[in-house]
User: What shape does this take?
Amino acid sequence: MKVIRKKEDEIFLKKIMAVSLAIIVVASFEALFYAKDINFYEDFSKVYKDLSYSQYINLILFNMILAIINPMIISLYTFFTIDKIRINQIYKIFFCFSTFISLMHTLFQFRLNSITYYLVIILNIILFIVIVKKERTD
Assistant: This one.
């Protein structure tokens, strides 16, 4: 029984790590695209005339950090505690809620012309489903 449970936990951990890695990579590429393309800054400066390029870069980096902090926390917490604490109802409620908040943050950015916008949304939904579908193991 313990061997089966340990194998299930290992599979769950691999799923969480893979989806989290994908979210981090896609969000990082998105930040790179926005930071390196001068056209995005020109569009941004038309709306916000008083902000400089360094403030624009800071905004991009802050948005990237907001996009990757949730999967990083979920991955690290799961990696270090899956053997000791297991996956319980509190884990599922807390991390489903934080993933939902991250998803809402991404949705309300309305970057409809960016493929990475849709990829981050899809990956957050997958992360949410992986967490919800995990059976209790305590």
Summary: Residues 42 and 49 are 10 Å apart (CA to CA). The chain has five helices and no strands. Residues 2-36 form the longest helix (35 residues).
